[in-house]
Each structure stands twice: as structure tokens, then as C-alpha cells.
Amino acid sequence: MTAPVDRLPNIKNAKDVWLDRYNNQRTHQGKRCQGRTPMQTFTENMLAAKEKMWDMEGSSELTATI
């Protein structure tokens, strides 16, 4: 039987493989993804998200940050 510490690299590798498949290869059918991968959805919507961010530092008014 291997010590738990010896199994950590295998567990990390399995997690990394699973996360890559989940986020970059497997398509999702949810409201936002609509048949795309989460990474595709994220990158396609990054500009829209940036346009919605508000910068309130040093100002009492809301200003869009692009």
C-alpha cells in the first residue's frame, strides 16, 4: 500500500485532466453556455463583462471601465 503523500501527484494529475476536459472540451447545455464549453463562453463574453465593470475609486459618480 502506498502512503497518502505518494498518491498526491496522481490525484493532482487526475484533477487537472478532469478540469481541462470540463472547461475546455465538454460542451455544456446551460443558459449561458448553450452548447459551448465554459472557456469559450468566458472568452466570448469577456469584453461585455469589462464594459459592465464600474470604477468608483476617487469619484462619487459611476463611470464605466473598458
Shape: elongated
Class by SSE composition: mainly alpha
> Could you tell me the strand content as a percent range?
5-15%
Low-confidence stretches at least 5 residues in length (pLDDT < 50)? Answer: none
Global Rg: 20 Å
The percentage helix is 40-55%
In DSSP terms (H or I, runs of 4 or more residues), the helix count works out at 3
- Order of strands, main sheet, comes to 1-2
State the end-to-end CA separation: 55 Å
What's the total number of strands?
A: 2
- The average pLDDT value, as a whole number, equals 81
The major pleated sheet works out as: 2 strands, antiparallel
Tell me the domain tally: 1
3D structure, described in words:
0% of the residues are buried. It is elongated and about 55 Å long. The chain is built from 3 helices and 2 strands; from the N terminus they run H-H-H-E-E. It has one domain (4-64). With 66 residues, it is mainly alpha-helical. It has helices at 4-25, 38-44, 46-52, and strands at 54-55, 63-64. It has a two-stranded antiparallel sheet. Helix content is 55%, strand content 6%.
